[in-house]
Amino acid sequence: MRSIVVDSGPLIALFDASDEYHGRAVQFVRNLSDGLVTNLPVITEVIYMLDFSAQAQRDFLYWSERAMVIDTETRGDFPRIRAILDKYGDLPADFADASLIALCERLKTTAIASVDRDFTIYRTRDRNPFRNLFFEH
Hints:
Blueprint: E1 3-6, H1 8-15, H2 22-30, E2 35-39, H3 40-49, H4 54-67, E3 68-71, H5 78-87, H6 95-107, E4 111-113, E5 131-132
Helix pairs in contact: 1-2, 1-3, 5-6
């Protein structure tokens, strides 16, 4: 099964009914035929953004354990993350975005799900564009 690397935006929207992308996030998850993978920087970002509800945070963590592969190798990506942050410093790219770019490179995929339009600008080390599947569904 192929994997889609998922950013915090769709995950926040999935657990925040007031988010403008909530409906799209629900449909995206319902229509998935590929697996989702993310990392701990994204999990942290989602929990922070769901701070309006301890229940939403718990629901997200419960769902995450069952619905996604959570990569734990970000530490090994630090040199690449620094290079990405340097390269995209004018956007500015944040740590979570840079960690996802590095994760995609490691997994050899360009399939991503994000509400962040910067993924139309970001490129892999090999200069491949990302394919944002969140807006294709």
